[in-house]
Task: inverse folding
């Protein structure tokens, strides 16, 4: 049996789920397929930036996300050794957004919200336990072979959106190169419901703690704290995931020797890569399938949502208004690839280096950067606009 739809989206992470739901809401028949039994409950993205929240508001999703998350108007840069704190307040951008804060909310909550809305939608559907295996395309459309629970299913669509994440099978089938590099150190995330804020003075919900040897990020979501630390290449996965290492991290951070219970301990290999093209005929790459970056700044999922926003508007023009496909899809490629390279890659690499670096005076690079902003409202606004991703969207609109 062949199942026909206008757009097939593979991968029900946050990016694929947003793309599929927006298309269905536009009235374009769309099916979202996911290899897993549900949208994966992983502990990766937890920060939504203001422009992404504005997009979610347009889709009627923001109230549920706000109810499921924590607002973080203020975020902190701390120096681990000196204890020096610099606070940045997104409230300074209240004149330009209804959401002058980061929302701390786990990424799977957005993916599940979209997937639930697609169930029974007049123009949308979602299928779990369905793994895309291969595809073939011609001038008319794309045919996709999918492994279901009991049989191989065939889907035919006008366009295939590859939202199948970092190891994207679809990107590999297109042969598009995934240019960039992989950092030698990995990142370890530990989550706990232990009230770590009791051990710090005025800890915010988002905190970047700089140190040349032991930098870390402390992020709060409604029920947990997430601690992100670097895991140097010198040691093994087993060592980093051990209780002994966990106790060492919390002991060093909180100055206590009581064992802290963790809910997740996950090691991530960290890449800085951008696909050489986001468009391969009728196959369109979005999110982690198209670009990867380190998580410092919280740009991975957010920039993926911005890909989905840009692409779905162009598909609407093509599929509903009869616009010529090639110029619009080429522009999607130009706009989003430029932003991923010029902004997401450059900024995340700079953010990582600032966390690790220290000057001769022992003060961190981050601290110097922040002190410069503290006394200069104009520079601070520009910095907030950039880190909140407004600047990259303004730049995207300028790209012809
Ligand atoms: C520690 C850490 C913290 C992070 N924090 C942030 C943050 O705060 N803010 C931020 O913006 N970003 C953050 N990121 C990045 C963010 O997690 C990713 O950019 C985001 O998950 C990308 O979403 P996606 O939908 O493109 O891919 P994914 O979330 O990886 O989803 C891909 C989906 O495709 C499915 N799939 C794969 N292959 C197939 C197939 N063949 N057929 C069907 N389904 C398939 C998978 O099961 C998965 O559900 C973080 C990353 C890490 C590692």
Result:
């Amino acid at each position: 049996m062949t199942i026909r739809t206008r757009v097939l989206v593979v991968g029900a992470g946050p990016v694929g789920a947003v793309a599929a739901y927006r298309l269905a809401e536009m009235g374009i028949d769309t099916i979202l397929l996911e290899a897993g039994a549900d949208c994966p409950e992983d502990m990766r993205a937890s920060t939504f930036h203001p422009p992404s929240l504005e997009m979610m508001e347009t889709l009627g999703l923001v109230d549920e996300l706000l109810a499921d998350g924590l607002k973080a108007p203020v975020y902190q840069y701390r120096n681990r050794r000196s204890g020096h704190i610099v606070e940045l307040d997104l409230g300074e951008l209240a004149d330009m957004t209804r959401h002058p804060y980061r929302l701390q909310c786990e990424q799977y909550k957005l993916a599940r919200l979209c997937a639930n809305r697609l169930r029974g939608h007049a123009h949308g559907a979602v299928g779990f336990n369905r793994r895309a295996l291969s595809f073939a395309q011609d001038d008319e459309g794309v045919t996709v072979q999918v492994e279901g629970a009991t049989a191989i299913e065939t889907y035919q669509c006008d366009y295939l959106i590859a939202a199948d994440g970092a190891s994207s099978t679809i990107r590999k089938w297109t042969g598009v190169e995934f240019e960039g590099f992989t950092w030698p150190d990995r990142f370890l995330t530990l989550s706990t419901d232990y009230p770590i804020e009791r051990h710090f003075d005025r800890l915010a919900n988002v905190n970047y703690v700089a140190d040349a040897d032991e930098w870390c990020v402390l992020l709060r979501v409604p029920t947990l704290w997430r601690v992100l630390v670097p895991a140097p290449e010198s040691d093994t996965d087993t060592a980093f995931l051990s209780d002994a290492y966990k106790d060492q991290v919390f002991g060093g951070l909180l100055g206590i020797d009581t064992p802290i219970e963790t809910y997740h301990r996950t090691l991530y290999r960290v890449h800085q890569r951008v696909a050489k093209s986001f468009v391969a005929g009728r196959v369109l790459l979005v999110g982690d399938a198209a670009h990867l970056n380190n998580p410092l700044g919280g740009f991975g999922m957010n920039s993926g949502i911005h890909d989905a926003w840009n692409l779905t508007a162009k598909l609407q023009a093509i599929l509903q208004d009869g616009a010529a496909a090639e110029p619009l899809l080429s522009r999607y490629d130009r706009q989003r690839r430029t932003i991923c390279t010029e902004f997401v890659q450059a900024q995340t690499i700079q953010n990582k280096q600032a966390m690790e670096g220290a000057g001769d005076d022992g003060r961190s690079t981050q601290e110097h950067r922040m002190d410069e902003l503290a006394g200069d409202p104009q520079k601070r606004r520009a910095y907030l606009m950039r880190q909140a991703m407004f600047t990259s969207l303004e730049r995207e609109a300028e790209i012809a």
Remarks:
- The two ends are 42 Å apart (CA to CA).
